[in-house]
Specification:
Elements: H1 14-24, H2 34-38, H3 42-57, H4 63-76, H5 80-92, H6 97-104, E1 110-113, H7 114-129, H8 134-168, E2 186-187, E3 190-191, E4 200-205
Parallel strand pairs: 1-4
Antiparallel strand pairs: 2-3
Length: 209
């Protein structure tokens, strides 16, 4: 059960309803996840959903790599709903199922595409350590340029905020999303952040310059 109430269209005030109508008429098409909680502050919800729409649908990063970065955030923070939504989106965007499965299990993902490996390592190091090695930074900079590398960091930061919001308010996963669920390690009864191992390259295809 969630820890927080969710405004419904019938109980929303005028400010909440205006934001709700904007959300459901946009690319999301429905109100789901952290925006349910954010609607308690309509101004926050409005800015939140606009930033989220920009970072998911309006950057120069292709969906395959955007969704890969989101999965890193979801797995690191053990966010069940974020994982459920974006594992499906990542598969639809062309990320190999074997990579998705490895991330789900916190096992080293095996990459056939070097660009996938570079983006994963950038996101993994940033989540695990709060920064990235120079070599990793330069590889991703070579892929996407300065605007793109800023966008990747922003995507990762935004979906970290999403994961934290989903976790702290215990926002449930809708029944429409299938297993598997993320396994969460605990220590002294408390959930621990997931450790994400470095990936491995197999039959490397360097990205086109």
């Amino acid at each position: 059960m969630p820890r927080i109430s969710f405004p419904s269209p019938e109980t929303m005030n005028a400010e909440q309803r205006a934001v709700y109508d904007d959300i459901v008429s946009g690319p999301r098409a429905r109100l789901v996840g952290p925006l349910k909680a954010a609607l308690h502050n309509p101004a926050l919800a409005d800015r939140w959903q606009k930033m989220g729409a920009l970072l998911r649908f309006g950057t120069s990063i292709p969906p395959r790599h955007s969704e890969l970065v989101i999965l890193v955030a979801a797995r690191r923070w053990n966010s069940q709903l974020e994982w459920a939504i974006h594992a499906q989106a990542a598969q639809a965007a062309g990320l190999p199922q074997m990579v998705i499965d490895a991330l789900c299990a916190c096992q080293p993902p095996l990459f056939a595409d070097a660009a996938d490996a570079h983006v994963y390592e950038y996101a993994r190091q940033l989540q695990q350590h709060g920064n990235v090695d120079e070599e990793v930074y330069q590889r991703v900079l070579g892929l996407y340029g300065e605007a793109g590398i800023v966008e990747l960091g922003a995507i990762l930061g935004y979906y970290t905020m999403v994961a934290m919001t989903l976790n702290v308010h215990q926002i449930p996963v809708p029944e429409e999303y299938a297993e598997p669920r993320l396994q969460v390690a605990t220590q002294q009864g408390r959930p621990q952040l997931a450790d994400l191992p470095p990936g491995q390259l197999s039959q490397v295809k360097e990205p086109l310059s």
